Amino acid sequence: MKLISLQTKTTDNFKTNYKHLKELITSCEEGSFILAPELCLTGFCYERMDAADEFTQKTKKKIKKLSENKTIAITFLEKEDIDYYNTLYIFHKGKVIHRQSKHRLFPLGNEPENFAKGKKENMKIIDVDGIKVASLICFEIRFPEYWLNVLGADLILNPSMWGVKRKNHFETMTKALAVANQCYVLTANSANEDMAKGSGIITPWGEEIRDDEEEIISHNMDLSEVKKMRKYIDIGLKKKWK
């Protein structure tokens, strides 16, 4: 399976953001697993959250259609009852197969004042065509307790909008997560000027395929490499997740 990290800029124009994202997704080969940056279609538009939610409801249907021959993971700003959430959707073969709202909200970005927390129990491993997949949304990767929720995954997703001042933290932690869990990590960060970029794929061996300039970063995932690493240095993951 080809893993694809999209590294796009987010503008104030929702429609322009979607048009560009659609072009990139359409250009990706069939059967690929695609991850988009956190809230790449709307950004954290606190003064236009109702408009963002309205746009999300229309766009989810379009993304679902684009996923008929691909797997697409993307976060949306959406409203439920009176609360707003930052929610990751995984679309696979034209269906929503997983939904997970951000549980640990970033205080420096005023997220706790504007979003409700997602349920921690949705931070779990799911099966996608025989591959164990889990997700940590941006800031969540900083918390070791959440690493336990994704322990044993073959592939961990990390959609982010991570600031450039903490670029070293972002790249260090995503690599550490891959090495500690002996798995692939697919991370997609924003390409805006004040963002860290650093999107890409980290292998179970700690090899980093990153690029700060490209919008599409790809790498073929070989599940046998996960098994090989867990056999080579057995820390219990091989036995637990046979």
From TrEMBL:
It holds the Pfam family CN_hydrolase. GO terms for molecular function: 2-oxoglutaramate amidase activity; omega-amidase activity. Keywords: Hydrolase. Gene3D superfamilies: Carbon-nitrogen hydrolase. It comes from the Bacteria. Residues 1-228 form the CN hydrolase domain. The keyword Phosphoprotein does not apply. InterPro entries: C-N_Hydrolase (IPR003010), C-N_Hydrolase_sf (IPR036526), Omega-amidase_YafV (IPR052737). This is Carbon-nitrogen hydrolase family protein.
